[in-house]
């Protein structure tokens, strides 16, 4: 049943078959679950993320994507290390907040919310601050929809010999990334984003040689990424604490559907077409995009309010009545709203959406 399409960056609209996969119960001690589902997911995630799977491993973690970001920072960054966070939105800034909670020596390099992270500034900072050991960045900053230049950022970080942590929450599975080619050491995402599962767990794909060195570093029991990984390795898919079994099974179905679609390249092409259809339709109605096209991701698109009298709540309610749910804006610089392009949605859905907006706006 679909009362409306979720046009958000996750949770998002899922297929009926993904929902149906949650209709069975699973025992967390049973090999059918741990070996037949969890281990298969871990292996497949690594295969999606890198051209050199022997160098990487995957860890699943209960909770939202932020749980995994915190688990990674709290496990991979030691008290004696220094972290540089490049932030151009709410989620980059959140990594800085997490660092503060863990008393990590951290500098946050701030960029405007409507500009991409500048690799040259990172290069200059690392040249002046050799004590930095780790650099973290958000790939797709869903505050606005900006897609940061990950390849160029990674090149700079690797040239300086630093550990690179990437929040690919809303991009992994929908934008091609090769961790080995770029030199990414830890990459974080969530079940309910571009792989099109449902909320309940996230995952970290990590360079095995680095994760193996992280035992005893974590300052949290529940968010000890190393211990979670060690338990899954030794227990062949066993989680330390209760696993979100139904969500995990749904994710396995979502991964099968990603393969059936043609993999990440094919999904990226669909999301790109969704975005292009949406932007073309909205611009034809007089709406302006917040970001310039050259830094815009295909994941979520921000639009300015059309005029000073625009009532977002009324607009939202009328769209919901017509079967579409969108997102409010999340920046302080301008009045905006956001429309997600990911999930089980297609260009025709965005043509219907722009027609609905045309009807609403008169």
Q: What do you see in this structure?
A:
- α2 (31-49) crosses α10, α5 runs parallel beside α6 and α11 (263-284) packs parallel to α13 (347-361).
- 41% of the residues lie in helices and 17% in strands.
- A 7-stranded mixed β-sheet has the order 2-10-9-8-5-3-4, with helices on both faces. Strands 11-14-13 form a 3-stranded antiparallel β-sheet, with no helix packed on it.
- The protein is globular.
- By secondary structure, it is an alpha/beta fold.
- β3 (82-87), α4 and β4 (105-110) form a beta-alpha-beta unit.
- The protein starts with a strand and ends with a helix.
- The protein has 13 helices and 14 strands.
- 48% of the residues are buried.
Write the layout of secondary structure elements.
Elements (H helix, E strand, L loop, with lengths): L4 E2 L9 H5 L10 H19 L6 E7 L2 H12 L5 E6 L2 H12 L3 E6 L8 H10 L5 E5 L1 E2 L4 E2 L2 H10 L3 E5 L11 H4 L3 E5 L10 E7 H4 L13 H10 L10 H17 L1 H22 L15 E5 L7 H10 L2 E2 L1 E2 L7 E5 L6 H15 L1
Parallel strand pairs: 1-12, 3-4, 3-5, 5-8, 8-9
Antiparallel strand pairs: 2-10, 6-7, 9-10, 11-14, 13-14
